[in-house]
Amino acid sequence: MATVRLKNIHKEFNGVKILKGIDLDVNDGEFCVFVGPSGCGKSTLLRIISGLEDATSGTIEIGEKDVTKSDPIDRGIAMVFQSYALYPHLTVRDNIGFGLSLAKRPKSEIKERVNAAAEMLQLESLLDRKPKDLSGGQRQRVAIGRAIVREPEVFLFDEPLSNLDAALRSKMRIELTELHATLNATMIYVTHDQIEAMTMADKIVVLNAGHIEQVGTPMELYHHPQTPFVAGFIGSPKMNLFEGAIAKEHNADLYGIRPEHLTLSPKEGKWKGVVKHIEQLGADAIVHIHVESLGMLVARADGDFSITAGSTIYATPQEGKEHLF
Amino acid sequence: MKRQQIINGVIALVIGVLIFVTPFIFIGLTAVKSAAEASQLGLSWPSEWLFWDNLVAVIQARNYMLLLAYFNSTVITVGAISLLVISAAMIGYVIQRRPSKWNGFIYALILAGLMIPPAVVPTIWLLKELHLFKTLHGMILIQVAYGLSFSVLLFRSFIASIPRDLDEAAIIDGAKPWQVFFKVILPLLKPVTVTVILVQSVTIFNDFTNPLYYLPGKDNVTVQLTLYNFQSQFSSQMNLLFMNILLVTIPPLIMFIFFNKQIVKGMTAGAVKG
Ligand SMILES: Nc1ncnc2c1ncn2[C@@H]1O[C@H](COP(=O)(O)OP(=O)(O)OP(=O)(O)O)[C@@H](O)[C@H]1O
Ligand SMILES: [Mg+2]
Q: Is the confidence at residue B274, as pLDDT, over 70?
């Protein structure tokens, strides 16, 4: 198992700066998630760690060894692609064993290791099928099997669940977390889905436009976002952010309050507003309120909180839950 | 309306049969006639069927020249196709996957290969300099050169539909560049490869002019050249000439009839699903 250390990674494509100085330590056995909006450079950073892409400058160490100039195979990494990238002409067995057979391992060893990986992922009955005869979730498993069979020190995942439906995705989230616990390997996981980040990560790295905004545990990022970007990005629905009078009142440029930290009441409260729209989710309801002095305010209420669009409502921020920037 | 459509269809079919099938019937009928009957060059029914006699006569003509021609043509076709498929697939792969500043120049060369008609005299001069003139391997190289542009374009566009992730997954799995090509990409190229093999082998097998220019000499005769060589001898024996035509036409025809679907599939096939 291994640590991953990035020092001052820069990347340019045709003179356009994509990564602007990334410094990051991923500890041994950690589940580290890169999140950020589309195009912020998550995949590029992951590909630089994998060795598929060269950094313009900076160094990469994996397990205390400088691998900046190494080929992917010499880095002790395995990667799972968003598209799965299974070899269409090979059976599941040969897909999983491909790396081992390239490494000229003995046939009996390949068989044993492929079977072990298949068992861990419940793929035994599918070993002789071709990828085109598998469902999306099964393909995903094969792709993961291809990674674990090589017993890498670091696993790299690039949005591995984004092609699955919601139910399967949440199932695979749990399976991946369990896999991480079983293998105890270092994993780096790219996603733009903050739920995946919150639920799976030991450490979240929030990327924005080629630089790191903040690094921390999910709860650190939730409770103590250091920048407005992180405040807006982590948490769902998004944190309410206001400039102007309310921020001045607290001697700040920006005032933020999470939807779940607003108390709603039909009678009294700090801010009076009109309900514009209600998203009923069952367990809770997301209420969009227009407040004269603030603009649109989003609040989370209990599912059985009875309000109708157009009615007047009062919202009060909970003491000490505001974020100031 | 419906009735009109049927009538139109029948008319089209009749015209099609007249244009495409009549020549074959003519060849077939003439090939089995006696010399006297054949010299009338009509579509009449043969009064006696001399298929076997004519066949033996053609094969034995000029010291079994037709058999030698079949041998030469086969060597040229198989040799050229092997070289063509391997090199076109590799070239297509490299120019599709590794864009470089040379790509524009390479495309210009490929297009030039498609558009500019080959100049015979300088080519012969070059072949002579390389001691390849009048040799089968020289002829093979010529056929490869002529077929390369088209094949490269076919391979290139097919490879473009293979996701790059596959190459990268193989690299992560530890494949060297040549292993990525031979173990991952090449097996996926089967549909285009079949198309290139069929289209080019028919072209090369049927080629008349190039062997005529670049492969003179009695021992170097190819199948299509037998027609030319026999023409003077058989001018009084049209039945034999047409028997020869029949023998020469059949192999490519069979290829087309059987693999017609494959050819179209390979031309239009796209991304590998799954
Ligand atoms: N090979 C390349 N050539 C030129 N530009 C590239 C290349 N690869 C990526 N980029 C650019 O780099 C930026 C970051 O791309 P990257 O794929 O890392 O984004 P991402 O954070 O993974 O986004 P997403 O969530 O949409 O996958 C994008 O603006 C993209 O256009
Ligand atoms: Mg990406």
A: no
Q: How many domains does chain A have?
A: 2
Whose C-alpha lies nearest to ligand 1, atom 19? A39
Tens digits of per-residue pLDDT, A306-317?
888 888 999 999
Of B38 and A158, which is predicted with more confidence?
A: A158
Q: Which residue in the block uniquely carries the two structure tokens 């790191």?
A: A212
- Is the complex ipTM more than 0.95? no
Ligand 1 residue neighbourhood (C-beta within 6 Å): A 13, 18, 36, 38-44, 192
How many other CB atoms are found less than 10 A from the CB of residue B260? 11
pLDDT value, residue B257: 83
| Res B59 pLDDT > 60 | yes
Determine the Cα–Cα distance for residues A93 and A112; give it in Å rounded to an integer: 11
For residue B34, pLDDT over 80 is answered with: yes
| CB–CB contact B175 A86 (8 Å) | no
Give residue A314's pLDDT: 92
Of A52, A83, A132, the CB nearest to B171: A52
DSSP B56-83: HHHHHHHHHHHHHHHHHHHHHHHHHHHH
Among residues A178, A202, A232, the one where a domain terminates is: A232
Among A179, A212, A232, residue at a domain's last position: A232
Q: Cβ contact (<8 Å) for B174 and A99?
A: yes
Chain A residues with CB-CB distance to B171 below 8 A: 52, 71-73
Ion ligand 2: residues, Cβ under 5 Å: A 43
- Residue A248: give its domain's CATH number: 2.40.50.140
CA-nearest of B30, B95, B92, B2 to B244 is B30
Q: Which residue lies with its CA nearest to atom 29 of ligand 1?
A: A39
